[in-house]
Design goal:
Blueprint (H helix, E strand, L loop, with lengths): L10 H12 L6 E4 L4 H8 L5 E6 L4 H9 L8 E4 L13 E7 L5 H4 L4 H9 L2 E10 L9 H19 L10 H10 L2 E13 L1 H15 L4 H23 L3 E13 L2
Parallel strand pairs: 1-2, 1-4, 2-3, 4-5
Antiparallel strand pairs: 5-7, 6-7
Helix pairs in contact: 6-8, 6-9, 8-9
The structure holds S-adenosylmethionine.
């Protein structure tokens, strides 16, 4: 399962913003172009005519069927495929396309495809695109707690590489807005949501490190795990005392240009 890169501390705010932006428009046919538990749960709760959810991950379809009972209605479907494949949903158009943390995950699934992805999605949007993304994290964070969390996230990337995985590559809002225009959209709205990390987010980072270190030789595992545990303890203290403010998410609302 490919999880959202950001702990769901304000998932509701991001989806709530999309609902507000959508107003009284009908949802019609919806495409969840980079699906996962959170976005599909959101889409399944909307008054849609039908929905299609796409994942590039082999195990995700089974996971979503098990966790959400998806798809529940005859016209709905979860598809496994890659957007680079021109035959995927060829000629099919949707009233609403949701790209929820899809952009940042492309490097893990299909590196260097990000710019083409937006052009590819353009073919499928008749009404609106809602793009949720994460600003690239700052290289350094000020203060003991934020610095420990940032270091723990860096260590998490190290464990991904050691486990033979590719890393997420996030794109700044400014890049997204420029690329959307180039891909044939106009931006209706762009809203930034500062992130506050809580203890659950710290625990998830540590758990992810531990899972991936299971594939690594014992001495390396012991050293890296000890470091991860120390960093998590410092970060957890700060998260408990009011949360750690670092980075931001954004939601871009865009429509095809005529
Ligand atoms: C980080 S997850 C998205 C999070 C998800 N929306 C949620 O609610 O948890 C990224 C999703 O995009 C998919 N994905 C990434 N690159 C893709 C590509 N090139 N083609 C198709 N799916 C892709 C992944 O397989 C995964 O299903």
């Amino acid at each position: 399962m490919m999880a959202r890169p950001v702990p769901g501390c304000h998932v509701d705010a991001l989806f709530g913003h999309i609902v507000t932006m959508h107003g009284t428009r009908p949802w019609g046919r919806v495409l969840d172009a980079g699906t996962g538990r959170a976005s599909l749960q959101f889409v399944m709760g909307l008054q849609t005519e039908s929905w299609t959810a796409v994942t590039g991950d082999d195990g995700e379809e089974r996971y979503l069927a098990r966790e959400l009972g998806a798809p529940a209605r005859p016209g709905d479907r979860v598809l496994t495929g890659h957007w680079r494949d021109a035959t995927l949903l060829q000629g099919q158009v949707f009233d609403v396309v949701l790209a929820d943390y899809l952009l940042g995950a492309v490097d893990r699934v299909d590196p260097y495809f990000q710019e083409q992805l937006l052009e590819r999605l353009r073919q499928h949007v008749s009404g609106r695109l809602y793009l949720v993304g994460l600003e690239p994290l700052p290289d350094r964070a000020d203060g003991e707690g934020p610095a420990a969390l940032r270091e723990l996230m860096r260590l998490a990337d190290v464990t991904r590489l050691l486990a033979g995985e590719r890393l997420y590559r996030e794109f700044p809002l400014e890049w997204v807005q420029r690329s959307l225009v180039r891909a044939g959209f106009h931006v209706v709205n762009a809203t930034v949501f500062p992130i506050v990390y809580r203890t659950a987010a710290v625990d998830r980072q540590l758990a992810g490190c531990r899972d991936r270190l299971a594939h690594v030789d014992a001495p390396t595992r012991a050293a890296l795990e000890a470091r991860a545990v120390r960093l998590a303890a410092t970060a957890r203290d700060a998260a408990r005392a009011g949360g750690i403010r670092m980075g931001s998410d954004y939601v871009v609302t865009a429509e095809p240009t005529a």
